Amino acid sequence: MKRIFTKPGVHPYDEIQWERRDVVMTNWRDGSINFEQRGVEFPEFWSVNAANIVTTKYFRGAVGTPQREWSLKQLIDRVVGVYTRTGIEHGYFASDEDAEIFDHELKHALAHQVFAFNSPVWFNVGTQSPQQVSACFILSVDDTMESILEWYKEEGVIFKGGSGSGVNLSRIRSSKELLSSGGTASGPVSFMRGADASAGTIKSGGATRRAAKMVVLDVDHPDIEEFIETKAREEDKVRALRDAGFDMDLGGKDIVSVQYQNANNSVRVSDEFMRAVEQGGDFGLRARLTGEVIEKIDAKDLFRKMAKAAWECADPGVQYDDTINDWHTTPETGRITASNPCSEYVHLDNSSCNLASINLLKFLKDDNSFNVADFVKLTELIITAMDISITFADFPTEKIGETTRAYRQLGIGYANLGALLMATGHAYDSDGGRAVAGAITSLMTGVSYRRSAELAGVVGAYDGYARNAEPHKRVMRKHAAANDDLRTVGSMDAKIHAEASRQWSECLKLGEKNGYRNAQASLLAPTGTIGLMMDCDTTGIEPDLALVKFKKLVGGGSMQIVNQTIPRALKQLGYQQEQIEAIVEYIGENSHVVDAPGLRPEHYEVFDCAMGERAIAPMGHVRMMAATQPFLSGAISKTVNLPESATIDDIEQVYLEGWKLGLKALAVYRDNCKVGQPLSAGDGSKKQQEQPKEPEVKVIEVNRPTRRRMPNQRPSMTTRFTVGGAKGYMTASSYPDDGLGEVFLKMSKQGSTLAGVMDAFSVAISIGLQYGVPLETYMSKFVNMRFEPAGMTDDPDIRMATSVMDYIFRRLALDHLPYDERAALGIFSAAERAAQQRGEDPAALQEAVDREALAQSAPIEAAQPKEDAQPAVQELTLESHQRFTADAPLCMTCGTKMRPAGSCYVCEGCGSTSGCS
């Protein structure tokens, strides 16, 4: 073992400045405290968010008992201690000194957020629980009822532990084939219903994250068309039920009637099928038992149906079967038929993979060069540790345990690629950006397999290597040949590529001599929770989401900050400090770089993100995946995002190019394509057409508005409030007969700048109201606005506010808008939220409150719905809330809207994920 970061005789913890913190998490519904642990210990450079997530998710022991972990040291010691002891017991280390180096280097790297194991390691290793280390599982199902029922059971066990699984149902005979009794078979789609219901039940039974599963069907299965249309048809059901008055929003009481929603669906396409699509021709669907063609279909027509369904509901994705199996290291054992839920782990049936991801930004030196030597040493360390984990690991089923111990599949990957590229002045969608990504990926996998060959020389090759030696070595040569074909663009990627070439050369020599310890070494996972644990700006292979983010503060609240990689990128591009400050200030105000002062247009592309003013084009994502795929044992968890205006043709093109460019799997998401979502605009009844239509333009004459002044005597209400510790007063005055007409705010001493600004703001809002501007319009502009002070309030109806303006207009909505209009904006009182939890009708509750208030002659004002207010509501829901993450689920743990991480979702509030990181 080699030292990377540590020194002989010095414990890695002794070089860290530690500090104590309090972690308090509140209930998103009513503001009550649902988690509290005070005095936890973390390095001073860890962010509040990372510390909160590790404390709430990974610390073991009952809160409030002496057994509860309270320091990051305890967590790391618990995990690394098991790895080190197991390595010593099984002869991995040449000496006690090597074991100590391994122990110290792992502890340093984890404490400094240089890499992280996947979540099950932190949950289970070193505890009384089974030592499960894998997050990704692949199951198998045969054409018997016993096998199908066993599939249900195995999935349930995996979901109960918070992990995910994938399965290919193509062995199950189709609904167009006969049973031995003479009847007609049900077909795999019918059995998917039972598995979906099981997953939904287990998800709602207290799991910390929703069940994650992948269902795959081969493109030549006779039921493939029914499989393709399952989820799209359910979307039509959602529309119809919503129009009939049922509660079909996410989390609604009637949404459970929608089927097939707990799985990602993918079609396994073959080269034969894709060539038929290209050339135009028939394609045969084959009986499952005999293999004979029982029906011929037009390949282009079926491909079109796949793209149309994905356009409507984001499913199905595609998996390129021949490409996957051409890179398969153990084909003598069996074909690769499926993947894990996020599509990055592709290997044998009844197998698992444990993951770990490297924080690439930790290897960017002050001079903006990549620290190749340390990256090589760290990769060696991680592969050694991950292989040791298989030796002590437990598995959910005996079949999975047998396969994993025999083939020892590993999944090393990385995070923060997008931040690394931006910091070094590389555009994500550029030859230079792809060259850097390809070189780093090639180096990582080359080192991993070289270390795997070294381990094989010490503790032996994997059990299944002997029968698969030739195909395994063939795949190694394919990786090395792809590395030889990599074309460098700049000095950074040239140096990385040179070392990668050396590593692959050594890998082939050692592999020829020793064989390999692991059938699989690398993939690119979504890195949801562990990405937050490492304080990564970007996850997996993803670009940056946006240029402006929100940072959590000690004691609650958050502040808006410009990504810290931007100043570094500007310096790398040659800008002076004064220019950098001006550009950063412009980005902070506008959230994009277009027309930033002094920024040259040719540099705009460096700051392109997944969303915003200059969003990366869909094919930019596909090309980045293609640049790294030849250097990965597995695949890539990533969704190609398309704008709402994208057409079915665009999705067909993405699927076709993914095949041509050699990807193994591909999923797409068209913005705003789903119906069942937390907020929605319009009535939802209009059936989506295949191609977007131009809106009808009407010219309407509008009379010039006139001001309706307030009478000298008018009813008013004064509210004292506190937001993030800042106190203030709001006086809202109403017309005696018709709604709000005046608002005055006070938050500081008279004569201060803040008092003057608030007075001016109050006058502007009041005059607008008196000229007929609907309160809903102000709501659309000011609700969810973020700035300090922010955080906890003393209002039981509004427990958290992102700013004073956010609080003020939420309070005004509660006081002056009827329930129906507030419901469209997602604003409810504490009593209404409680009624929803009890299954009661909050609208009826509001009517009762209104009647009681009227009887007491209380000045309750409720603006009547106005036709011209509808566009304002639409603007709020579409622009302020949905955008890129329109259909992301609400976090099952804390209720926060999740964001994409690869092809899964992650909650930035508490770290929960919908996938396998």
From TrEMBL:
Question: Which residue ranges does the record assign to the Ribonucleotide reductase large subunit C-terminal domain?
Answer: 134-669
Catalytic reaction equation(s): a 2'-deoxyribonucleoside 5'-diphosphate + [thioredoxin]-disulfide + H2O = a ribonucleoside 5'-diphosphate + [thioredoxin]-dithiol
Q: Which cofactor does it need?
A: adenosylcob(III)alamin
Q: Which organism is it from?
A: Nonomuraea monospora
Please verify whether the record's keywords include Transmembrane: no
- Identify the residues that the record assigns to the TSCPD domain, covering every copy: 711-814
**Would the keyword Nucleotide-binding be found if you checked this record's keyword annotation?**
yes
Q: What does this protein do?
A: Catalyzes the reduction of ribonucleotides to deoxyribonucleotides. May function to provide a pool of deoxyribonucleotide precursors for DNA repair during oxygen limitation and/or for immediate growth after restoration of oxygen.
- One protein family per Pfam: Ribonuc_red_lgC
Report the residue ranges that make up the Ribonucleotide reductase class II vitamin B12-dependent N-terminal domain in this protein. Answer: 23-113
Q: Which UniProt keywords apply?
A: Cobalamin, Cobalt, Disulfide bond, DNA synthesis, Nucleotide-binding, Oxidoreductase
- Enzyme Commission designation: 1.17.4.1
**CDD domains xrefs:** RNR_II_dimer
Instruction: Name the enzyme's class.
Output: oxidoreductase
Q: What is this protein called?
A: Vitamin B12-dependent ribonucleotide reductase
Family as reported in the entry's similarity comment:
Belongs to the ribonucleoside diphosphate reductase class-2 family.
